[in-house]
Amino acid sequence: MNKYEHVFIARPDVSPAQVESAIEELKALIEEKGGKVHKTEYWGLRTLAYRMNKNRKGHYGYLDMEAGNEVLDALDYRQRFADDIMRYMTCRVDELNEEPSAVLRKGEDRKRRERR
């Protein structure tokens, strides 16, 4: 099985709890099809670089996984026809990282930085 990172953007009018449940549903789907999820993250409501479907913001979700073709096909099918998902992308990676993603570390770095 290959290693992948999967990111999706949900509409801004859904609640964070709904995005968390969508992440859990995707995790269950991946494990049901024989894949393995290593890490899931909810990045929050973020401003988009450009407008998508007349929206300026979106909820971001992230999954690290090991999966085969059957899992990727099921994931693609599920996300393509989901009303709440605006965009999604799956990228193959050489190695999965166990520490938090760069998006979550960025917020921690700001908190740790000393004020002058």
Give an overview of the whole structure.
It is a single chain. This protein has 116 residues and is α+β, with helices and mostly antiparallel strands. The protein is built from 3 helices and 4 strands, in the order E-H-E-E-H-E-H. A 4-stranded antiparallel β-sheet has the order 2-3-1-4. A hairpin with a 2-residue loop joins strand 2 and strand 3. The longest helix is centred in the N-terminal third of the chain and has 17 residues.
> Helix fraction?
25-40%
What is the general shape?
globular
* Main sheet: strands, sense, barrel: 4 strands, antiparallel
- Can you tell me the residue ranges where pLDDT is under 50 for at least 5 consecutive residues? none
* Total strands: 4
Order of helices and strands: EHEEHEH
What is the strand content? 35-45%
Supply database-style keywords.
116 residues, alpha+beta, 34% helix, 4 strands, globular
